[in-house]
Specification:
55 residues; 2 helices; alpha+beta
Length: 55
């Protein structure tokens, strides 16, 4: 992201990067919540399906 009139000056933690990080966190939090709601047998089934597709 450029700051002011200079397009060569880069702001490390500009609004675009901050928004992207917030979106990634909320996406991860949603997946974690979903994973926690699964029973252990459901979790194992999901893992088995992923491993079967990878093989």
């Amino acid at each position: 992201m450029a700051y002011g009139l200079s397009t060569r000056l880069f702001v490390e933690d500009g609004p675009e990067l901050t928004a992207r990080r917030a979106q990634q966190r909320s996406s991860t939090a949603a997946h974690n919540l979903l994973w926690q709601q699964l029973r252990p047998d459901q979790r194992l089934r999901v893992i088995d399906q992923v491993l079967d597709k990878a093989a």
